[in-house]
Structures
1.
Amino acid sequence: MESRNVIEIDNLNLFYGDFQALEDINIEIERNKVTALIGPSGCGKSTFLRTLNRMNDLIENTIVKGDVILDGVDIYKEINLLDLRKRVGMVFQKPNPFPMSIYENVAYGPKAHGVKNKAILDKIVEENLKKAALWDEVKNRLDKSAMGLSGGQQQRLCIARALAVEPEIILMDEPTASLDPIATLKIEELINELKKKYSIIIVTHSMQQAGRISDKTAFFLMGEIIEYSDTTKLFSNPQKKKTEDYITGRFG
Amino acid sequence: MIKLLLRNSKEKIIYGLIISSALITMGILFWIFIFIVMNGMPHLNLQFIFSNYSGEETGIFPMIINTLMVIGITIIIAVPIGISTAIYLVEYAKNGRVVNVIRFSVELLAGIPSIIYGLFGMVFFVTILNFNWSILSGTLTLSIMILPTIIRTTEEALISVPKEYREGSLSLGASKIRTIMKVVLPSAQSGILTGIILGMGRISGETAAIYLTAGMVPRIARGILESGRTLSVHMYLLAKEGISFEEAYATATILLLLTLILNIMAKILSRNQES
């Protein structure tokens, strides 16, 4: 049986050189739920997100201490980096489709993991564009450049691209920050649909968004998790003074 | 009021100076161009372009072929090394002493006068390695000479690739090398091509370095170990030996045409990259 938690984090500390960006993080992320990370700019929520697929490895002088356990496996000690990133997908703040065709964007990941058969790739592309609610809009121009899509379409393409490598977890780093309200709504509907199959962790600046789409919410401040609970509970009945101050707009 | 007038006239004077500098620069360029073409055209005909340079014949066909051969082989040698170096510097090297040394060497290489490359090539490739005066010695020397151009333009092209592309690829579990080959290099393609074409321009105009290493036999080189005279060397000899200034001008016209074509190609490519 799969356990209830997909990720368990024990005493995570992260340093950029001398600067401590995350301090004693302990958190359990539940499977097939949407977990929102909120907090003011620079509070460490994006840094935390990027420890989960080890994107912080790209930054020089980053030191990670503590255990990040994904399905019982320590991702910093016991897993191949490329396998980890296949299992933990990511969608970025600014839509970042590659400057290639729509088809090639979605097929990129599967190809990187060794899928060569054209018929299988065709199927993967179609399936994942459908999952990302983009298929109907692009099915007649799969060979056209992805750069010609609107911002919202590009972001859904990036979601399809992430889904195409069959991740278990999807990390989203403010995925709607650069989108208009209608495109944002579409992405939010999509997240609601996706959580049936995937565990989603989303960083957001918007508390309304966290309230609308997430099951659990963690409030970050100065590199620490101040409070973590069910979203409805955190917003209606915060246990900590700092959380209350933040969600009532007294700072941040 | 007077102050305002003064300021206005000062601005006008500076404006005038700037405009006239620009006009003078352009004027000189056009003058050179027209002067050479005017003097070269009367002697330029198909026979001049397509015949050999021996006995009665004074054609430049062998030189054209040698020039193209030198450009081609130099590019084949220099481009892989240059691009790999740039990839190392931008994608792999952490900022530190090694990178600084490499960057400094590249700048140094760029600043060395070409005659020094020629001298080095003559001593090292021609004599020590015993390649003699040959296309091989010449192209090896020129490869070293254009490396800085290739490395720098490739570096700039790689740096201008958004880091979001790299992150996007890595986050899908693609390896670093795959990310570079499939995403970064294709995005930097036109910038790199522009650098290659600029390098080709430099090769086609180079005289000192190639004269000392590839020799001046006015026949089509039948192998890379044979000597072969290029257009620029030919022009130099025609003018210096006082053989024929008409032929020198006509050769110069062809060389100008070649450079012009290369530059226009570079322009078109860099414009493509911007859009």
Note: The two ends of chain A are 41 Å apart (CA to CA).
2.
Amino acid sequence: MKNVPISYPTFFIILPLLIILNSALTAQPEVTPIDSAAALIPRNITAKDFKYDRGETIELNWKPADRVNQEMLDGYEVYRAEESSDSFVSIGFTGPDVTRFKDNGVVSEKRYRYRVAAIVGDVPYLSEATPPASPTMELVNFNLANLFIIGCLIAGAVTYFIGHARRGKKLFIRKIAGLEAIDEAIGRATEMGRPILFVPGINDMDDVQTIAGITLLGRVAKVVADYDIKINMPVSRSIVMTTARETIKEAYMGAGRPDAYNDDMVRYITDEQFGYVAAVDGIMVREKPATCFYLGAFYAESLILAETGNSIGAIQIAGTAQPAQLPFFVAACDYTLIGEELFAASAYLSNEPKQLGSLKGQDVGKLLAMVVIIVGVVAATISQSWNIAFFTRLYDLMIKLFTVQN
Amino acid sequence: MRREIPLLITAIVGIFFVLQYFIPHPPFNRLNGWFSDWFSIIGACAIWLGALNLIRISADKIYRKRSDWGFSVVIILSFLLIVVIGFKEGRDFRNPGSGFDWLYNFIYTPLSATMFALLAFFVASASYRAFRARNLEASLLLVAAFLVMLGRVPVGDAIGVSLGLPETNISKVAVWIMNTINTAGQRAILIGIALGVVSTSLRIILGIERSYLGSE
């Protein structure tokens, strides 16, 4: 018996204890979730109209379960019913860490109640229904107030300088080489007896770059009409074709040469990007224009066009507001209008005081941007490096002022 | 009146479009959708103007036997082929295995890819011209471009290691040039563009910019 580690009476006492302990241990996961699940039911649920929208969203917020219970959660399911009804329908599911839900499926002026269920396995632990809430439309989106104020400041500066210029005050506008070269480039084409090629980009008239290109076309066409040379304008959009025709026709009429205008100066090629590029390249190689203008929105075709123009020895003037394409134009063209210069071009060429005044107003916007960038950088640097409360508050204010919330 | 009415329409529509951004209330909140729909409808109708213009100019070129009139024959035949097959197949013209799908996948796509592929050669020739160290700015551009290109390929870091530099140093330099210097420059251009758009829009809305109507 000495080798027996445990005596029979002790064994019979320990065995039931082990069984009880084992059952207690194995039962624990079954008991605990049920107790914890009660605590999982979302608390403090609020349903409110989502501010400054079109009256089509209600925002729900609730308090989460404590951290330990949260680990058991699969997520939250949101149910909705109209005020008069008790049949709640599931409208969405969020993760266990999310305690906010935007219901975009509501109709303005109707009232809705919500229930949120914590989901554990397949079992929903439902909350009580919220008081009724209804989405409403606001008259003005005050979330965009900062944008409105900045816009007003810039628009005010532009309007002020337009008035300033109208009163006959002298304004200094720096020379833009690309625009100074337009007359020279057209003159060269006249001397060589070769046509001018004008490419307005591949976007439609709903792109402000195309509009800027067309406004420049009006001025180029006027000089072309005066010099009596041929302008060739292949386009990739039908609406651009009709607009460009009208613009050139008016320019020819303005120059007193309506008889020299021909509809075929502007021709439609195709809407397809590379089909258009192939056709324009073909025109360049066959007709060898003396001057090529690329003014508008360009993408991957920018370098293909500009390098082909370079290979035929044309003077090339490009302008776009696509930052990714600017290096290609700078590398391959004689003159490039960089971003804002494209938009300034028409005003610059007109030499009208009121148009030049708008450029001066634009400069005020740039000054504002420079001041804001410098103050922001200083505030962020000092706040991060020395944690001075004033600069931290200033930095937070700058972030708030220049963040657009939608 | 021929000039005043378009200017008035432009001003009214421009002001409404600015307002609709800040007012979520009807009818402003629907304006964007309405105008987009109208633009799509006008665009869909205008495509026929474009197509007819293409056919007319090409047919005229063939009729008058102008130089390179053979290309115009190809244009008209290609146009007719895709239009006839597209119409013949009706609503199913985009289904895999249809004639239109075959033309798109085996003729249009390779031709398009060919044009796109030309870009590689043009990048090389443009880079050759742009990266010549003629002055300080061009030399800086050359060095920056060299480091960025080297940092984008594994051999760049291998060269760095062989020169005794810590691993991934060259690629880190490339990332720094792109994220810091390049991004700062691009943002400056973008700020200028945004201001230019505001100023141009104001000039058009206020009727100061009229050259898109043909003259001042």
Note: Chain A touches chain B through 89 residues (CB under 8 Å).
